Amino acid sequence: MKIAILSRDGSLYSCKRLREAAEQRGHCIDVIDPQSCYMNINPAAPSIHYRGRQLERYDAVIPRIGSAITFYGTAVLRQFELLGSFPLNESVAITRARDKLRSLQLLARQGIDLPITGFAHSPDDTGDLIELVGGAPLVVKLVEGTQGIGVVLAETRQAAESVIDAFRGLNAHILVQEYIREANGCDIRCLVVGGRVVAAIERQAKPGEFRSNLHRGGTARKVHITSKERATAIKAVETLGLDVAGVDILRADRGPLVMEVNASPGLEGVETTTGLDIAGMMIEYIEQRARPGFRLKSGG
User: Fold this and answer.
1) How many other CB atoms are found less than 10 A from the CB of residue 205?
2) Long-range pairs for 263-268 at CB < 8 Å and ≥24 separation?
3) Most buried of the four, 40, 75, 110, 182, by CB within 10 Å?
4) What pLDDT is stored for residue 297 in this prediction?
């Protein structure tokens, strides 16, 4: 097969591993910078051009689109879909997952347990917003944040009011969530491929930090998940219509709580920690699905 990876940086671990896994299986694979693509929106002869030439049709495309270029990256992915390429995560599913508010609302509608969450832009009553999620301590997040950036733990009511007011001054949309103290700075990252949890790791925040992201100095180890955690992760991914995703789960006293569903999960942490060939599993899933006559699940 001929496969394209949509990524701004082909030297990243995930891109290199996907290329390696595809080539080991005899596929031809190219890394394409979506921001260097331009498109002919023509119903009779749609096309994608890249650095001065028209691209031939690809059997499949793997989107590794950073959150900063979601709008244009998903537009390019839609054009590949229009041309008949199988997407490993459809454009519409990626935009669902990237919109933190929309994704939480969709998960809540399906009865998936979440931390108690408030959403605001310019709350007139900061105190009421704080009470909405059970008071301090609480977590304040910028909706546009990623990899733990724009996430603050406010341990007192006064600190919470100050952080919320500061974010409000930035004209930003914010999420306010209850702090799950019993999680002790840990979360579970479940990697789902094709409706199966293929790997799970526990991420532990470094001392003095509550964010467990590996990019922020957290550590990881293999972990066995419960049947409820497995079912929760799969249902969350299915709700957003994704083929591949990382689901971040907190272990609370009341059961597993979904924090976030990541439509472009990094592979380095989970492959290094588990020793599993996740990139190979993703390519194998493409081989099973990228066949003539496939239809988009979400209708584009």
Assistant:
1) 20
2) 263/89, 263/93, 263/94, 263/97, 263/98, 264/63, 264/64, 264/65, 264/66, 264/89, 264/94, 265/189, 265/191, 266/13, 266/14, 266/214, 267/13, 267/14, 267/17, 267/18, 268/13, 268/14
3) 75
4) 67
Do strands 138-142 and 117-120 pair parallel, antiparallel, or not at all (unpaired)?
A: unpaired
Please tell me the distance from the alpha carbon of residue 247 to that of residue 187, in angstroms, as a whole number.
Answer: 10
H or E stretch at 126: helix 126-132
Ordered DSSP codes for 41-60: --SSS-EEEETTEEPPP-SE
Distance, in Å, from the CA atom of 68 to the CA atom of 150, rounded to the nearest integer, reads 14
Q: pTM to 2 decimals?
A: 0.88
Closest to 136 measured CA to CA, from 126, 145, 146:
126
Span 29-44, average pLDDT: 94
DSSP annotation of 294: -
Cα–Cα distance for residue pair 160/135, rounded to 1 Å: 9
pLDDT digits (tens, 9 = 90+) for 86-98: 999 999 999 999 9
Segment 107-124 shows an average pLDDT of 88
